[in-house]
User: Fold this.
Amino acid sequence: MVYLVGAGPGDPGLITVKGLAVLRRAQVVVHDQLASPELLKEAPAAAEIIDAGKQAGAHTLPQERINEILVARARAGLTVVRLKGGDPFVFGRGGEEAEELAKAGVPFEIVPGVTAAVAVPAYAGIPVTHRRYTTLVTLITGHEDPNKEASAIPWEALGQNTGTLVFLMGVKNLPEICRQLVAKGRDPRTPAAVIEKGATLAQRTVTGTLADLASKAREAAIKPPAILVVGQVVELRQRLKWWETRPLWGKTVVVTRSRQQAGKLTALLAAAGARCLEVPTLEIGPPDDFAPLDEALARLSQFQWLVFTSANGVAAFMARLFGRGQDVRALGQTRIAAIGPATAQALEEFGLRADVVPGAFKAEVLLQALSPLVAPGSRILLARAQIAREVLPQGLLRLGAAEVKVAPVYQTTAPRELPPEAAAALKEGAVDVLTFTSSATVHNFAKLLGKERFQKLAAKAVVAAIGPITSATLKEYGITPQIEPQEYLIPALVKAVIDFFQERSGD
Assistant:
């Protein structure tokens, strides 16, 4: 089976529910350049990924070869997803591919997508129809088949058309399009807009009229992919633009959390308009030896307290517990302490509520909270990273605990190199914000860049740290963070970054 799937334009969230479902069970994915790279992460790890991207003058694969691949993979008994930007049947050559599949007797399904012709103007604050302006919209390709002897575009009719005109792939021919419309009767004062890389965090919009838009687009160096919108509805952009007015729009933010943890921080920053560069400084894996943890799990109900110092620790502990064929009933009457709200939330995902959650994310504060609760002679299990400060185990023993069992449940290591997509931006210093969520992220980021380069980058950027310990570690490198939220939580960190820039813009 071949699924011709519309990925929507730019924003990966614009793919349909059905499109995402078939992508997640694909064995082969043949994708266009206009389909968001983020969507490829949704394909199974074992899926074959084939780049069939097309840009002006540079085709990775000719259309005939794409057709051959679709037929061959399907005949081999595989589930194939042809992932196309926008909608496969709106100037996407999906119709041609479907014809080839039908001719070859290969079963296929069409999964429509959100067309760029409607979504990109919407992301620029331009509705293609509006009751007070027009009830007519016409979609036109700005890039016809070069093998045609003559243009099939009815310029005479378009010049007399008073509705909204949307040209896709029309940047190269923008001056000619504007000239033709005016020559055939459209008022040169008609509002028009060209939108580059629509529905992405790199979106740029230039507005003008048919008389001057081509020169304005040239001055702004607008490049493909871009969409041209012509009509009175363009006037609404001034009141309705929303995508480019979000608080972190145009800001590039470095996220240094591990790949497993970066998702939430990246999502919140992107929702505020930031372009996120993920530079994982931590790789989370199993400890060198599970023996101490397995020994503790075998007698779990004997401990009066189970202490967690991170959400990672909770996830790793539960994975090992369940992997041994046990479940949370093994805890018996054991009470639970969590170092902070994020760790407590991780416990709640397993149906467990922490008995102690201090207000500050520090071992010293957790120890203080436990001080009146730990009875002399108590047995305490401390589930933590393989390498950690000894503040908690030593402090718990001083409180009179008979046993403090330290059980490493995971370890963090530093990656050896920067991700290719982030290396160029960091080299150019094209970064507005550096975020750090632990001391380890600071140390490992410094190792990846080198201390001197780290300091130069931080001198140009705004530095955000999630708490005083992380801030103190930054100061070891001569860097003082400008942002430190009062709550040591990811949402609080993002809010603090937003507040910082809003206050700065208000000055």
Q: What stands out?
A: The chain is about 35% helix and 20% strand. The radius of gyration is 28 Å. The chain has a mean pLDDT of 92.
